[in-house]
Hints:
The protein is mostly helical and about 400 residues long. It is about 75% helix and about 5% strand.
Amino acid sequence: MKKFNYEARDQASNKIVKSSIQADSETAAARLLIKQGFVPLNVKEQVGDGSFLARLTGRITTKDKVVFTRQLATLIGAGLPLSQSLHTVMEQTNNKQLQSVVQEISASVEGGRSLSDSFAKHPTVFNEVFIALISAGELSGTLDESLQRVANQQEKDAAIASKIKGALTYPVIVLFVIFGVLIFMLVTVVPQVEKLYEDLGKNLPFLTQLMVDAADFLTKFWWLAIIVLSIGVYFFIQFLKTEKGIRFADTFKIKMPLFGKLFQKLYMARFARTAQTLLSTGVSMLDMLKVTSRAINNTLIEEAILRAANKVQGGKALSVALEPEAIVASLVPQMIKIGEQSGRIDEMMGKVAQVYEDELDDQIRTISTLIEPILMVVLAVVAGGMVGAILLPIYGLVNGIQI
């Protein structure tokens, strides 16, 4: 679809409105405006809107989607027609990119497609869980409730991800600072030590010589170091986009020291919370497992859930199907079994999610406490190495002169 800037008169208020609209042609855009209650005055195709800066500043955040979803749920719950609700929310949305997406969804709905199909045209904005919940809400006639559940799901998932990012940010910043200090010392202090030894006609100690060689290389071939580093980073990022790279990253997340258990609990919380939301909306067990497996964002756990889905399709209970999967925490099938016996699997899933979300909070606090002494040890080792390579040889020279 193309984007068109338009100037039109609102028939209800008789005011002149200027905005943009998505359509296949100028004629289609004019027809769409007439359907929305406008009299088109001027419709022109928009050019030069797809710059990198425009895309970057118009990025659709989780907060944007949550606000949009809640507003849409409120309007639909109040009894407004779907098309009018979408148009109203579009006008209240500040994010231009989301405005454009909602406009396309509105046009699709007015063209006769279902809301879930219209959302499905934008997979980069609305994930499979979002689409599945909307579809279930349309079938059950509880679209407003489904939209509220979607918003709650997005908020909880974003809150957990934000906490983990916060726990990882501090050590990364400190390590960058340590690396920066090391480079600064190599470039400024180490050459002075080398000059001192040359003036005295002495040979540099082995460790100091290594640092001098590193400093010489950085000083003379800094451009080569940047090129090699950039190429290495580029190819590593490209590798992470391949099937093997994705699997490597997913395995590393679960097995990495200190943070491995954290990620495992994150995935269990995400699985349980998503499963609860889907089941409570009326999505079937098999569809829930297929959608949830892709929503976890980890190939190892996705494979485990899909294996369980095949067993469920063969007639096994979900708790029995998940029990042999070592990557799935043992509490999950145990709680699901209780839910199967009581007929309230969605409630049990909610309790499992709450357990792991609480454990995540506790573990993040524990890791934040442990990170500081660990980083202090790293800093002490780096500082000790610098002292051993720079200061101790100087003290040795001074003592030698005194003798």
